[in-house]
Structures
1.
Amino acid sequence: MKELLFSAGLFLGLFYLGLILVYIIGVWKVYEKANQPGWACLIPIYNIWVLLKIVGKPGWWILLLLIPLVNVVIGIIITHNLSKSFGKDVAYTIGLILLPVVFYPLLGLGDATYRESEL
């Protein structure tokens, strides 16, 4: 029984690490498509600064992300602006919010192109 639990735990742990890796690769590619350094997605706080730059919002919006409940609204706005900057619609924004591990790799590795002028 212990071996079975260990095997199941090992499998789930490796599966989870795989999902994290797929997500990181997707976000990395999104940053690179937006002409930003891909490694920036790995650095806490700086990744938000760069994301705000990608979506055309001022850096002081980081402060809005520190306010409870306001941060949820601002996060949705940022995510929607990210979708729009790659030519996607509201449905894609919902996908980025609810299934980021699927939609960020699709955005980063797919054929979507960054359109800075649409912001």
Note: The chain is about 70% helix and 0% strand.
2.
Amino acid sequence: MDTDLALIVGILFGALSVPSILSAISDSRPPRVSSLMLLAGVGLITFAVLQKPGGYRLEQVPDVFFSVLGRFL
């Protein structure tokens, strides 16, 4: 898997899991699936940062996002 794609998918998984976790907590039920999704997102982000030589800087994330988006559209 491409490190840029892994980073973006990890960020999206993490962003989508937060509302689900908050909803589960407010309904007094365990956030099982959403916590697994958050864990997968953190794993993908960690994989991307460790596999790319030099890692990623915060300023690079928007450029990486749009380059990945441009590849698939």
Note: The chain has a mean pLDDT of 94.
3.
Amino acid sequence: MDDVLRDRIRVLPKIELHRHLEGSVRLATLVDIARTHDMDLDVPTAVSLRPLVQMVDGDERSAQGFLSKFKVLREFFRSQSIIRRIAYEAVVDAAEDNVRYMELRFTPKALCAISNCTPDEATIAVCEAANAAALEYGITVRYIVSMNRHESLELGFQALESALAHQDMGIVGLDLAGAEAGFPASLFRDVFVQAHEAGLGITIHAGEWAGAESIRDALDHMHVDRIGHGINAIQDVDLVRELAECGIVLEVCPMSNVLSGVVPTLDQHPLPQLTQAGIVTTINTDDPAVCDVTLTDEITYAVENGLMQEADIADYTLRAAQAAFLPPSERDQLIATFKGWYQEVE
């Protein structure tokens, strides 16, 4: 990586629209949890835990290989105090990377699996801790509640109930994630119709580990505003045209796409083609700890590998501001603020 380029990008104000809390846990925090709770692991150190929770050389680059890290990570969410610590630190880490607006998504089921708290308790823990960090570090944070398409519809409705009950804490959207193969988004249509009617922003993971048909399913049934990943739209010319015409935003996560086997190498990523076709594209980390990247790293790698030019960073950032799940007046203020910041650095 070009350190000089990275330093120039690091100081720029940035926006993150697609970051999972469960994939944003510090290795040092995992070590502390493992030792405090006597988890059944060999002497827990950052070195020993890294291959269990982070994509490393030699790992299978596939959906299964990538999602296997989260099976391990779920074992660490053992109490509400741990959930609070992880949420607080995730916001601090974003702020230290000069992310100034972030939509942090989390899956209540993942947080409740071991901690035995309710979805409501997990949601409150995340929002309270992250809001405290946001206030302390001068970053604006909003929240997207997520569910997995390979889990039950009942869990989906529970996640929706938690999101609607705590909108006053900063929850602005609902997300569907998880294994695409064999689990169409439309299985959760009723959940997302209710979310849309309640005014939540809708983002659906699609076209990541499945093809263009997965995006079509989301477009036809889910009231989508944004698509998580969505890069396999490139397989269908008509779909690319429709995404562009409808202004559907793609939350693109280049390094995650490489590490999870969606594309073989970064320089083969279709981000430039999608952007040139008129689709609204944004750049995000997905799971910064699992992928061992910051948003600064993502943008630097994208520039180095020809996915974008350094001069394009302002455009990508302003597109993200325009796509934020905020009330119109707040979104307009966010756009104006970032325009001002980027005019200062030109």
Note: DSSP finds 17 helices and eight strands in the chain.
4.
Amino acid sequence: MSNRAVISTPDAPAAIGPYSQAVKAGNTVWLSGQIPLVPETMEIVEGGIVEQAHQVFTNLAAVAAAAGGDLNNAVKLNISLTDLGDFNQVNEIMTGFLSQPYPARACVQVAALPRGVAIEVEAILVL
């Protein structure tokens, strides 16, 4: 695909597997799932779900910026939580990073996430 570009930034964690931080094709950008890694140290942010969610959305915002947009360009978010009891707190954090109208979204509970974190979020942007 000639209009495909890999998006990468040091302002978000490096991939911990065989994937790119994001891939842009045309005016659509697919952001890989982000977990609450601190980019500079590649360690999990200290704290609970509030701190983890904040770090995840900070990481996603950095990748979105590297792609030439921001999280308000999101048309779809997929959120994975290890505890759906964290749903309301994640919603609060999310509203600090996005403005209305909000993107479409799915939120599911999963058995486990990489490195034992509580949250992972992926996004699709249209620029």
Note: The CA atoms of residues 36 and 56 lie 5 Å apart.
